[in-house]
Design goal:
Number of domains: 1
Structural class: mainly alpha
Order of helices and strands: HHHHH
Radius of gyration: 17 Å
Mean pLDDT: 92
Largest sheet: none
Number of helices: 5
Length: 142
């Protein structure tokens, strides 16, 4: 078994890319493709939030998903997405723990919150623009 330090960058990359794909799918396919911008904004208004927040969440999920896939500003993007998951969790708290109940439970967004915090702690890992930017800033060794 390889040392943990040898596999950590790849594990962080796997987590980052999986999160990015899920956020991209959730924002682009579910919210825009299934419900549309007007439908999503209407839903947000129906649960007591400003309708425009629906558009902000769509943009955050799509742009955040793309940034995570690319490994761009991974720590900051992960932390920026935490409030979205906390908002989703709060929206589902009255439904109970499991997401299979009507209206969905709060365990799924709670788990997402934890994974985003873990990603922020781990950083981008392998195959990330973060690593390219960091390498470009390092002084050359003579």
């Amino acid at each position: 078994m390889p040392e943990t330090s040898a596999t950590t960058p790849y594990a962080a990359a796997l987590l980052r890319i999986a999160q990015g794909v899920m956020f991209l799918a959730h924002g682009a396919v579910l919210k825009l493709g299934t419900f549309g911008l007007a439908g999503t904004m209407g839903y947000f208004a129906s649960i007591g939030y400003p309708a425009a927040l629906g558009a902000v969440v769509i943009a955050a999920e799509i742009l955040g998903g793309l940034a995570l896939i690319a490994g761009f500003a991974t720590r900051w993007v992960s932390l920026a997405l935490v409030p979205l998951m906390l908002g989703a969790m709060l929206q589902h708290t009255g439904n109970g723990w499991l997401f299979n109940v009507p209206g969905g439970g709060w365990e799924y967004p709670a788990f997402w919150t934890v994974t985003l915090l873990v990603q922020a702690g781990l950083g981008a890992g392998a195959w990330a623009l973060d690593g390219v930017r960091t390498a470009a800033r390092r002084p050359a060794i003579a």
